[in-house]
Design a protein that fits this description.
zinc ion binding; 17 helices; zinc-finger; 390 residues; CCHC-type domain-containing protein; metal-binding; disordered N terminus; two-stranded antiparallel sheet; binds zinc ion; mainly alpha; disordered C terminus; nucleic acid binding; 4 domains
């Protein structure tokens, strides 16, 4: 076959274009060689072979078969290209979703955590310290929930205590926190399995304040004197503490009596008409009446003193020729006392405490100098009460 060869055909070079041109009767094969990307380095033999197809049916048959195969391949390539495009669409969708997720992450991470003020446990005020701890605990737990990416692991939560603890509270666990920092990946070396355990441990130490213990201490120290000398204020404070302690009425009545001022205690001792042991409300009301009567007696007593002290100054024994501007007759005084005792307790207290005339309420004089006649027009209830000393 060497006779068929030419110098040209023996030369080895890229013959993609020549092969494609020779395949004009076989469009799929031609298409294949037109689009093939890699060089086809060959001599002229393939082109001569293609040329024989016009006269050699075997060669023609072979090329027809190859053409069909190329057609099939092309369809397959189209199918694969279609899949490739779909895959590319999926890739873009995923990429977009990922970009969005990442940018959202960035935004969340960009919001700075507002850490709670470090809890030190150094306050000596137990009630205040307990309040501080409770608030701190709630803040820490909510931060763990609000920033799940920053607190994914127990280690991250545990080392967070270094940020939000100080003083003696931090000192009590700092050695064990150090072990976690030294062995971040070996939880076997840690003192706690979870960060919650630390909170529980701290709670045992700092959430100790008990309202009842506090109330018991306060009620133990309570006496009806100083800032609680005022009866209503004393009753309100005592009742408040006793309610916290969940005392029953009998206990309340007993403990109430123990804490009354000595003057009131003394008055009760001489009485046999006090309410039952378990009638706390009755005791409060009875003692209020006695207190009011003591206040009335004090006011009237002061009035009598003033009258007696002033009377000798008039320098005469003639009660009939009394000077109304300077003093009063003992008979007038008794009438006036009865009138004053008939006044509503609040009115009397107000006049007594503000230095007003007990008889008429005038600020310019005291009752011993009052020109206004004792008014006996009342119901008589007040005077009856006074006389019976009830
Ligand atoms: Zn008056």
């Amino acid at each position: 076959m060497s006779g068929l060869k030419t110098d040209d055909s023996a030369e080895m070079r890229d013959r993609r274009e020549e092969i494609a041109a020779a395949l004009e009767d076989y469009p799929q094969l031609r298409n294949y060689f037109t689009n093939v990307t890699n060089p086809i380095a060959t001599d002229g033999d393939p082109i001569r072979l293609i040329g024989q197809a016009k006269t050699n049916p075997i060669v023609a048959k072979g090329l027809t078969v190859f053409n069909i195969m190329a057609s099939t391949c092309e369809a397959e390539i189209d199918r694969l290209n279609g899949l490739l495009r779909q895959a590319e669409q999926h890739r873009k969708t995923i990429e977009k979703a990922l970009t969005m997720a990442l940018s959202k992450t960035d935004r969340d991470e960009a919001i700075p955590i507002k850490h709670p003020e470090a809890f030190t446990g150094d306050s000596n005020d137990l009630a205040k310290r307990t309040e501080e701890f409770k608030h701190w605990r709630q803040r820490v737990l909510s931060i763990w929930i609000d920033y799940p990416r920053k607190f994914r692991t127990e280690r991250q939560k545990l080392t967070y205590f270094l940020t939000v603890l100080g003083g003696s509270a931090l000192r009590s666990i700092s050695k064990r926190l150090e072990d976690i920092i030294k062995h971040p990946d070996d939880s076997e070396q840690w003192a706690w399995d979870t960060a919650e355990e630390v909170i529980i441990e701290l709670a045992k130490q700092y959430e100790t304040f008990d309202e009842k213990t506090d109330a018991l201490k306060k009620i133990t120290d309570l006496k009806q004197e100083d800032e609680y000398a005022d009866y209503d204020r004393f009753v309100a404070y005592f009742t408040n503490l006793a309610t916290t302690l969940e005392w029953d009425d009998k206990t309340k009545a007993m403990q109430f009596e123990l804490r009354l001022c000595s003057k009131l205690k003394k008055a009760i001792e001489s009485r046999d008409d006090m309410p039952d042991d378990d009638d706390f409300d009755g005791w409060v009301e009875k003692c209020r009446k006695i207190t009011n009567r003591q206040a009335t007696a004090a006011a009237l007593g002061k009035m009598s003193q003033g009258f007696k002290a002033k009377a000798p100054a008039n320098g005469n024994n003639d009660a009939g020729k009394k000077d109304k501007n300077k003093g009063g007759d003992p008979m007038d005084l008794d009438a006036m006392k009865l009138a004053i005792a008939r006044l509503p307790q609040e009115v009397l207290n107000h006049r007594y405490q503000n230095g007003l005339c007990l008889n008429c309420g005038n600020p310019d004089h005291y009752a011993k100098n009052c020109k206004k006649k004792a008014n006996n027009g009342g119901s008589g209830r007040g005077s009856a009460r006074l006389l019976k000393n009830d």
